[in-house]
Design goal:
This protein has 262 residues and is mostly helical. It is 81% helix and 0% strand. It has one domain. The longest helix is centred in the C-terminal third of the chain and has 28 residues. The protein starts with a helix and ends with a helix.
Length: 262
């Protein structure tokens, strides 16, 4: 019973953060599953979180699509390229020692936290579209960034929203709000690709997936409500979350250093 409650709590925390600042909760999923829920195998934690994150991102994608914040052609090309990268990355990730993989994951969390502290640029081309005219200039960047981001996402078993958003912005110069909306299609694609790869190796705990999603739905509702109330303080919230990611990353690295030394 306690195990189930911890799984629901962890899922609600991830959902709350996703609802609050529109991303970032997924990177906490693996550490929560390992250190709070008590999943002994880091690979099972990665496979399980990949399924939960992919399903959660679909719900968020629908909401952004309703507000016309998705550049579908750019997102589909980026996602298609990323699926190839995610398949390769997750295959390699399964071959890496689980404890060392957690250490690398902690380092990635610290890198992401550092990027979050850097103030993001505003602006961009809100009218950018992938057409036969723009393809020669946009397509190569979308493909290269897509494969690279997908590989990292698959390797660590994360949705990769923090990597996809800057990748889409760099490839197309679209504004952040469109990059966030478009990234959710990629998050779902990468997550399902990673999940399938891990599921074929029996590295997904399906009962935990269900509990995690139940908690995520509840947490997401609360997070979206809090986001509306605190809309004027989004930057402060983002910076605060960066601090949380950094703190968890330091903890994960500290726990993983003995594995590297061994």
């Amino acid at each position: 019973m306690e195990h189930n409650l911890l799984a629901i709590f962890s899922g609600s925390l991830v959902g709350f953060v996703l609802g609050l600042i529109g991303g970032g909760g997924s990177i906490l999923a693996v550490p929560l599953l390992v250190y709070v829920v008590g999943v002994k195998s880091p690979h099972v934690a990665i496979g399980t979180s990949a399924v939960a994150v992919a399903l959660s991102s679909v719900a968020s994608l629908i909401d952004h699509a309703r507000h016309d914040h998705v550049k579908w052609r750019c997102a589909m090309v980026f996602a298609a390229a990323g699926i190839v990268g995610a398949a390769l990355g997750s295959q390699v990730g399964k071959q890496v020692d689980g404890q060392k993989l957690l250490l690398f994951f902690g380092v990635l969390m610290l890198v992401i936290a550092g990027l979050m502290f850097v103030k993001k640029r505003s602006g961009g081309d809100a009218f950018v579209q992938l057409t036969s005219f723009s393809a020669p200039s946009l397509l190569p960047y979308l493909l290269v960034y897509g494969v690279a981001v997908g590989a990292v996402s698959g390797f660590f078993g994360i949705g990769g929203g923090f990597l996809i958003v800057p990748g889409l912005m760099a490839a197309t110069n679209m504004p952040m709000i469109f990059a966030i909306g478009s990234s959710l299609l990629c998050v779902a694609a990468f997550g399902f690709t990673t999940a399938i790869n891990y599921a074929t190796s029996n590295l997904v705990d399906w009962s935990l997936v269900g509990l995690f999603i139940v908690g995520g739905v509840v947490g997401g509702v609360v997070g979206r409500y809090a986001s509306t109330v605190l809309a004027t303080k989004k930057h402060l919230l983002s910076q605060s979350f960066a601090g949380i990611v950094a703190a968890v990353g330091i903890y994960v690295v500290a726990r993983g250093l003995p594995a590297l030394a061994g």
